[in-house]
């Protein structure tokens, strides 16, 4: 385990029990948590994207703001739903955010998860082409994004432009060199992990996965990582790919921790359908005193296989408490698992 970051879904609700009452709270507290995490020595600040929900939805203004307030920490998404994206506009936004951050953007994308509304991407102006389904459309958008991020010109310039053009075909600007090599795919199945490797993307594997063998979650996820790395080598890509896994890890070091998460000590994997044709296995929450967490996580085969672990944080408990959770993991748990 080489890197540890956090993954924030950015939930907000006007409930009096929430520290995050509005969209403004969710955005501003996300920036504050990223700054705090960098000060604590964490390696990454990642954010989930969900449309039509009281959660974070438009990542690039947030990522740019965090990039301007921090100097070291990786910033990224986990993940952007490509069914909703105009890949050229996305390339411009991503390029700008990456340049503002000094090349620290790690952009996680995917086909997306079950939605708040029926076929929400249609409201954004997208629909599958003839013979496609929504997954095909997401991958088509992804192919265009990956091509555009290479930075090669493809658009015919106007012979009478408003401003002088550089010679040759034009590309979306600003272009950020190196961003193409920092694209990750959120894969639910072994097959999509293999596809991501063939495309030269890194792998994000979350706290749920398609149940393909009935084995424990961490075993299936470790096998998915092996499939991905084998496919990367077979494709002949240079260098080593990166792999992240997400985990809910709650060290119990205070009475408040115990009140919030003591009941999760008996957590276990769960199996169920998240879509009609997709049976999934959901990973357990790790909640215990630090010594017990080190022992439990040492047996997690996917954590051992990955190079990055993203901590899913309970963001509605506020910045101070989530900074405490991150600090507890970094100080009391991670060193026992070989971090730093």
Question: How does this model look, in words?
Answer:
This is Alkanal monooxygenase alpha chain. Keywords: Monooxygenase, Oxidoreductase. Its EC number is 1.14.14.3. It is an enzyme of class 1 (oxidoreductase). The protein is an alpha/beta fold. It has a single domain (3-337), classed as Luciferase-like domain (TIM Barrel, Alpha-Beta Barrel). It has ten helices and twelve strands. The protein has helices spanning 23-40, 59-69, 87-101, 134-148, 190-198, 217-235, 255-261, 290-297, 301-305, 319-333; strands spanning 3-8, 44-47, 74-81, 105-110, 183-186, 202-205, 208-210, 243-251, 270-275, 278-282, 285-288, 308-312. Helix 5 links the parallel strand 5 and strand 6. The protein is globular. The mean pLDDT is 96.
At a glance:
By secondary structure, this protein is α/β, with parallel strands linked by helices. The protein is 36% helix and 19% strand.
Helix and strand layout, with pairings?
Elements: E1 3-8, H1 23-40, E2 44-47, H2 59-69, E3 74-81, H3 87-101, E4 105-110, H4 134-148, E5 183-186, H5 190-198, E6 202-205, E7 208-210, H6 217-235, E8 243-251, H7 255-261, E9 270-275, E10 278-282, E11 285-288, H8 290-297, H9 301-305, E12 308-312, H10 319-333
Parallel strand pairs: 1-2, 1-12, 2-3, 3-4, 4-5, 5-6, 6-8, 8-11, 8-12
Antiparallel strand pairs: 7-10, 9-10
Helix pairs in contact: 1-2, 1-10, 2-3, 3-4, 5-6, 8-10
Throw out a few tags for this protein.
single chain; 340 residues; alpha/beta; TIM Barrel; three-stranded antiparallel sheet; 10 helices; 36% helix; 19% strand; Alkanal monooxygenase alpha chain; Luciferase-like_dom
């Amino acid at each position: 385990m080489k890197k540890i970051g956090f993954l924030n879904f950015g939930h907000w609700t006007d409930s009096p029990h929430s520290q995050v009452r509005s969209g403004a709270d969710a955005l501003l507290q996300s920036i504050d948590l990223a700054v705090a995490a960098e000060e604590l020595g964490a390696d990454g600040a990642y954010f989930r994207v969900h449309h039509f929900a009281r959660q974070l939805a438009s990542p690039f203004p947030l990522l740019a703001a965090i990039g301007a307030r921090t100097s070291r920490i990786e910033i990224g998404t986990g993940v952007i739903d490509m069914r909703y994206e105009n890949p050229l506009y996305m390339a411009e936004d991503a390029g700008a955010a990456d340049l503002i951050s000094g090349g620290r953007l790690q952009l996680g994308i995917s086909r997306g998860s079950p939605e708040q509304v029926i076929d929400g991407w249609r409201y954004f102006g997208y629909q599958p082409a003839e013979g496609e389904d929504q997954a095909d459309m997401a991958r088509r958008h992804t192919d265009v994004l990956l091509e555009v991020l290479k930075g090669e010109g493809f658009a015919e310039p106007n012979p009478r432009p408003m401003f002088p053009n550089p010679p040759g075909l034009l590309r979306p600007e600003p272009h950020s060199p190196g961003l193409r090599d920092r694209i990750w795919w959120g894969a639910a199945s072994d097959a999509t992990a293999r596809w991501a490797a063939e495309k030269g993307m890194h792998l994000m594997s979350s706290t749920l996965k398609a149940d393909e063998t009935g084995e424990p979650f961490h075993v299936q996820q470790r096998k998915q990582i092996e499939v991905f790395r084998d496919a990367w080598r077979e494709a002949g890509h240079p260098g080593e790919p990166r792999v992240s896994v997400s985990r809910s890890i709650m060290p119990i070091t205070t009475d408040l921790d115990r009140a919030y998460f003591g009941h999760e000590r008996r957590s276990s994997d769960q199996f169920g359908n998240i879509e009609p044709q997709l049976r999934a296995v959901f990973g357990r929450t790790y909640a215990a005193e630090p010594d017990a967490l080190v022992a439990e996580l040492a047996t997690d085969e996917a954590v051992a296989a990955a190079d990055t672990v993203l901590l899913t944080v309970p963001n509605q408990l506020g910045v101070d408490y989530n900074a405490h959770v991150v600090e507890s993991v970094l100080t009391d748990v991670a060193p026992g698992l070989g971090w730093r």
